[in-house]
Amino acid sequence: MGALRVLMKRSLSTSKPYSSPTHPFLNFTTLHQYQTRRNLLLHPSPSDFVKLHKLSAPDSGIVEVSLDRPGAKNAIGKEMLRGLTHAFEFINKESYANVAMITSSVPGVFCAGADLKERRNMNQSEVKDFVNSLRSAFLYLEEIPIPTIAVIEGVALGGGLEMALACDIRICGENALMGLPETGLAIIPGAGGTQRLPRLVGNAIAKEIIYTGRKINGNKALSIGLVNYCVPAGDAYSKALAVAREINEKGPVAIRMAKRAISEGAETDMRSGLALEEDCYDEVLNTKDRLEGLAAFAEKRKPKYTGE
Fold first, then answer.
1. Catalytic site residue 159?
2. CB within 8 A of 174, min separation 6: which ones?
3. Is 162 a catalytic residue?
4. Does the active-site annotation cover 137?
5. Does 158 score more than 70 pLDDT?
6. pTM, entire model
């Protein structure tokens, strides 16, 4: 746990972003939603299966990672893993990014998990390397200093759900189907599922889900605290965008420090957590945005934050 806290502190700091470990491998959306995004393609991805976009004004600051492998239900193979790793690293390095959304452009599917067809052709060592790389990629996603939102429409199984668990907020449609079915294949969730799910829903519920491999729908996921919102099928993106816009309006440094305080604090005792909170508060005290917030309040206007 101590090592994890050190790793998180290094990665969530605004002054020195975490560098990812060396990897051996490096939504359903309506036409209306695409029209309202006004997305601009960012740096080319090493994978055609992962698209990285930023939203233009008035949504500047919101970044979107879109999974696009329709022929395999967004199953994660070596190429998609390279694309995801690239996207996460790019977001971590870009100072203008205030919130990131993980979405799918494949109707009825968020992510079906690992590419089992590809895995059948791997030897034991290759499987181990791939799973270790996937686990590292999702840890990197979890430690990106800005808030992340998983937008789940349809299937999110195995590694797909593990990716969503690594996000700060999960929003699903009623048609969502989530689960960790690995025990049915005589393995266990290997990309963080055994650790993040219990922390989110409690040990007893997590054990039942993992032991049985049972799949749960969106409403059930909401009732156990697995997702933050469950909305009518097809509306998850709209809800996620609304939440992202709320976050995007706030002070960028404050949001990063809030994430750091919560994420690191959850892994330690109360006294240490309060000391961490003090350190994070000190970071926002010295910002121009704090003064802008006070001025905007006094002048009864909307603040204009710059992240400084």
1. yes
2. 217, 218, 219, 230, 231, 232, 233
3. yes
4. no
5. yes
6. 0.85
